[in-house]
Amino acid sequence: MELTGAEIFVRCLKEEGVDVIFGYPGGAVLHIYDALYRQKDVTHVLVRHEQGAVHAAEGYAKSSDRPGVALVTSGPGATNAITGIADAYMDSVPLVVFSGQVNTALIGNDAFQEVDTVGITRPIVKHNFLVKDVKDLAETIKKAFYVATTGRPGPVVVDIPKDVTADKFEFKYPRTVKMRSYNPTVKGHLGQIKKAADLILAAEKPMVYSGGGVILSHASKALTEFTRLLGYPITNTLMGLGAYPATDRQFVGMLGMHGTYEANMGMHHADLIIAVGARFDDRVTGNIEKFCPHAKIVHIDIDPASISKNVKVDVPIVGDVDRVLKELVKEIRERKGKPDASALEAWWQQIEEWRAMDCLKYDRDSDLIKPQYVIEKLWEVTKGDAFVTSDVGQHQMFTAQFYKFDKPNRWINSGGLGTMGFGLPAAMGVQMANPKDLVCTVTGEASIQMCIQELSTCLQYQLPIKVVNLNNRYMGMVRQWQEFFYQGRYAMSYMDALPDFVKLAEAYGHVGMRIEKPADVEGALKEAMKLKDRLVFMDFITDQGENVYPMIPAGAGQNEMILV
Amino acid sequence: MRHIISILIENESGALSRVAGLFSARGYNIESLTVAPTDDPTLSRMTLVTRGSDQIIEQITKQLNKLVDVVKLMDLTEHRHIEREMMLVKVKAQGTERDEVKRLVDIFRGRIVDVAATTYTVELTGTGDKLDAFITALEGSVILEVVRSGVMGIARGDVALKI
Asked: How many interchain CB pairs under 8 A, A with B?
C-alpha cells in the first residue's frame, strides 16, 4: 500500500521501536504531526523550546539503552535545536533529530522559515541527510538510526522537506543496512590486546582511567570485573561516573580540573595508565606537557581518531570497550599471571596517603547552607540510587564530587559542551525513559533560567522531577574564576532581580520550597521525595562565597592542585 | 611535511563541504584540493595536499576516515607515486615575443592551445615545481592569467586506491 511520507515517517519510528519523541510543531512538519495524531504507538512530548526537545532526547538516551529522538520544524525550529545537537555531538549521545524543511522546489530561495539545516549542522553531527525524494525516506531513516547508534554514537540529523512528507510511496522498511563507507571496528586486535596484557601485568603503579565510552558501550560490568581482578586503583572522568561503583575502595574519585587529589596525583605518578573509553580532554589532562610524565599508556576506544589525538599512546586498541575489556579479562585469566603484589601494596599505601588529605573537606559548622552539604544529603536521602541530571557550573562539580554514583547511566550531565540549561529538559527525558524511578536535577539559579520554560512541559506530562536549586545569587563558577584570576572583579556574574522561585514553581503548577538554614536541608529533601507524583522545586539559599576545591588551574599539571 | 592524500568519497551533494568543513573546523591547512567523479559515477576522487607534523597528518587521515561519506583514502606520500598538476597560462605575445614564448613552451614540453593576435594560451602539465619554473621563466613577458588545477596523484606499480 502506498503511504504518504509523513505516514512512512511514523511507521519507521515504530519499526525502530521508538516509543517517545520530543518535539515542537510548525509549518514544515504539519503533515508529520497529522500522521502522529492518527496513531497510538509513539508518544510525543511537547516541549516549550526546541533546545529542550533535544536535551530531553539526550536525557532519554543517556539513561536508557535506546537512542533519543527529536522532531522540530524548519528554520527557527532547527536553529533552536542546534545547542542540543552540538551538546550530543560532544558527549557522543545517540540521537536522531528530524527537522522539517521547506518544499524541495523552494530550497535555496530564502523561503519562509528556511535555513540550510544540513549546512548549519554539518560540523556538529556524526552525519546528516537531506531527503529529496519520498522513495529514499525509509532507507534514510534506517541509516540514520544505524549511524547514530553504532560505532562511537552521535547525533544524526534528517532534514525532510514538506513535499516529501506529502508525496506517496510504497512503504517497505529495510531489514538491514549496509554502507560501504561506514564500518566501525568493534573487535579489538588480538595482538594489541596481548601487548596491553603484558604492560598491565608488569605495572607497578597502575591507574585505570575510564570515561563516558564505558557507559555508552554498557561496559560497566566488564570494567568492574577487570579492575577488581587486578586490584588496581580506578578513576572516572566526569562523563564516566557510575561506570565503576563510587563507594568501592578501589575508586579514587573523579580526576581532572576538579577531581580528587588522590586521582590526579595517582595519574601523575603512575607508571601505567589504562585509558578506557576516555578521550584525554583538556579538563582531564591539565597542561598536556606535564601530563603523566612517567606512564606508558594503553588506550581502548572505538574511535581511532580519539587515539593519540592529544596524548601519544603506547598501546592503542580500537574496538568496542565492552568487547575489548572482556577479551582482556580472558587473556589475563588465561595467563594466570598476577601483578607484583608488593609493588601494588606500596602503590596503594601511597594512594591512601593522598586520600587521607581529604581534599573534599569543607566547613561543616557554617551557619550558611554549603552546596556540598546539600548534595551529600541528597545522596543520603535518595540512598544513592536516583537518576541525577545537572546543569553546568559549580553545582555540577559538587554533584560529581559528592553524589557517589554506584551505577552507570544515573549521572546525566553536559560534559563536553558545558551547556547551561541542560539539566531540567534532560531530566524530562530521563523520567520519560524511567517513569517509575526517582529523577532529580541539580541546578543553580543561573542555569535553571536558561530552560525554565520546560517547567510547563513537566506539568503537562506529570513528570515528578525533584529540582535542587543551589541558589548562590552568582554564576558561581564564573565568580570563582573572577575571584582567583581577576582579583575579585565580579564582572556581570551577580544576578540581581532573581525571580521568587517558590512562586514561580507554583505559577507553573508545581510545589515550591525555600530552604535557608543548614538544619532544614535534610527535612526539606525528605519532604520533597515524599511528594512522589509532584514536581518539587527546592530553592536552597547557599553560601555565596563557596568555591569548588580542589582545582587544577589552567596551564598547571595534575600534581599542581590548589587544595583549599 | 607535505602530504598528498587521495580520497574516494561518495559522489553526493555536500560531500565536498564535509571535507572542506573538517579542515577549517580543525584548523588544518589545505594547499590544494581537486575533485571529480571516477569511472564509477557513484564515487568521486579527491586529491588533497596539506602540510603538518606526523601527528597532525595522522589526525587528518583519521578524521577524514571518520566522515561517513569517505569510503577509502590513501596517503600517497607513503608510496612511490606520480603527481601532476595542469596549468593554463594566457600570456601577451606580440612581435619578437611570439618566438620567444613558443621556444619556452617547447623547452617545457607545453602546448600552445589558443592563438590570438596578441596572446598565446599555453597548456602545461607537470609537478608543481615545474609549473613554478615555467612561470619564473616567463618573467620577461606579461602574464594575463594563470589557472592551475591543483595537484592530483596516483601510486606507482600495483598499489591502487579502489574499493
From this structure: 41
